[in-house]
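STRUCTURE:
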């Protein structure tokens, strides 16, 4: 159990709330956070630490570390307020010369994950979509400037499958793969990174009982699940998104080269390179994370499974580049 200085200074919070933990390094030394902050006293139990407007300086960070707290928690419902703070703070952290690269990568991962959780809760919000795109731009700049970023993100990634962490992983693999393939145009990389982050947005409209089912889906359930690309595409359009390079991978990341994919059974020539890149990143991460119905595959085994699908499901040239990327990571 985490220790705290004095339980009397904290107020026990209702445990029906959903909380999100951020590393202490996510908070800049001059931060003033305009939402309540919480500490976890043991798994599933949180106490209120400070009210909105509390200045978070280095002495506060050090005191929390001394008392074995590595994370500060906020309510998911405070997402709009806290996301604005994170967006401003992230740039300071990522390019702070006094922080080591692993600390920076942890902050990038946590911030982007929180951003996706907020996005999934507000999938049609123009404001949240735009803030999410700003985080993608910072992520691209960091991944391109930090050679070890992909390896570090893999090391700290969640082993269980969650839509929000999966989306962060897919965005990261997508950006790194495009870099490996020689993509350099800022706008193309930015839009591709956004499509990776947004690709599963439509799952916010799918019943949780289906997403979390511990066993095979019925035909009816699978048909419902197969609607998520269209739901995500429509939500982004409703949020004001017009870029086809962002929208098409969201709509088409489950299409197959042999025409047996969904939702539109497209074939080779109709599936854009952007879509093929996102599809490979999506498949690899889905295989290498633990699901409710199976354990995670090791990287080698996942690539062997994917190799069997080359030419029918996934692009052979892009797959070769992806294997090289992982071999160099």
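SEQUENCE:
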């Amino acid at each position: 159990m985490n220790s705290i200085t004095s339980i009397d200074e904290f107020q026990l919070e209702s445990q029906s709330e959903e909380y999100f933990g951020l590393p202490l390094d996510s908070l800049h030394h001059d931060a003033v956070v305009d939402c309540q902050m919480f500490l976890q006293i043991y798994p599933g139990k949180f106490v209120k630490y400070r009210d909105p407007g509390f200045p978070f300086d280095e002495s506060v960070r050090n005191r929390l570390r001394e008392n074995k707290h590595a994370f500060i928690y906020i309510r998911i419902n405070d997402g709009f307020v806290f996301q604005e703070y994170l967006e401003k703070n992230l740039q300071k952290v990522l390019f702070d010369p006094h922080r080591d690269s692993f600390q920076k990568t942890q902050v990038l991962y946590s911030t982007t994950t929180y951003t996706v959780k907020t996005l999934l809760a507000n999938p049609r919000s123009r404001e949240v979509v735009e803030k999410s795109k700003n985080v993608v731009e910072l992520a691209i700049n960091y991944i391109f400037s930090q050679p070890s970023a992909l390896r570090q993100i893999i090391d700290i990634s969640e082993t269980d499958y969650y839509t929000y962490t999966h989306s962060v992983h897919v965005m990261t693999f997508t950006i790194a793969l495009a870099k490996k393939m020689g993509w350099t145009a800022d706008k193309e990389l930015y839009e591709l990174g956004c499509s990776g982050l947004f690709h599963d947005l439509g799952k916010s409209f799918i019943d949780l009982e289906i997403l979390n089912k511990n066993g095979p889906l019925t035909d009816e359930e699978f048909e419902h699940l197969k609607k998520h690309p269209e739901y995500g595409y429509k939500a982004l359009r409703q949020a004001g998104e017009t870029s086809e390079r962002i929208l098409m991978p969201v709509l088409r990341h489950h299409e197959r080269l042999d025409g047996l994919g969904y939702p539109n059974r497209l074939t080779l020539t109709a599936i854009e390179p952007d879509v093929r890149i996102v599809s490979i990143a999506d498949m690899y991460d889905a295989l290498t994370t633990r699901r409710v119905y199976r354990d995670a595959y090791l990287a080698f085994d996942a690539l062997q499974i994917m190799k069997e699908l080359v030419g029918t499901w996934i692009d052979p040239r892009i797959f070769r580049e992806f294997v090289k990327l992982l071999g160099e990571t």
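REMARK: The chain is about 55% helix and 10% strand.
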